Model the fold of this input.
Amino acid sequence: MRISLSVNNRSVESTVEPRTLLVDLIRDDLKLTGTKVGCDTGQCGTCTVLLDGRAVKSCSMLAVQAEGTRVTTIEGANAETGLTDLQEALWAEHGVQCGYCTPGMVLALQDLLATNKAPTEQEIRCGLAGNLCRCTGYQSVVRATLALTGQNGGRNDV
Ligand code: FES
Ligand code: FES
Done:
């Protein structure tokens, strides 16, 4: 099947099998390997991308379902000058360790922050409920998000 979509503000046309997953289109066809595969069953969130601005798990969608949409992967989530403020905050607060979950975390947080400029700790944890991390224990990710939004100076125990 022939599909057309926008990926990181670039028009993309591709021919896919009806069963091709969105994550496979992104990683295998478009070579955007910042999007990771962890569980392949919709549980870990490492494959999270933005679809029309909302976080989705790209292992749980068919590529054909993305027809006509605007997809943003981590490669398209950078500021023109480098890291975004969110990425800088994660870096500063040690919210990144092995980094495998980080692309999905960043995009899930971008989705949250797009509609809630000052999420509470609870709201941040809920926003990340679909993203598993085996390294950070989530504390530093939550702290970074609070710091970014000017809450708690990001330094209190959360
Ligand atoms: S690889 Fe998609 S949720 Fe785990
Ligand atoms: S930083 Fe290693 S899984 Fe999250």
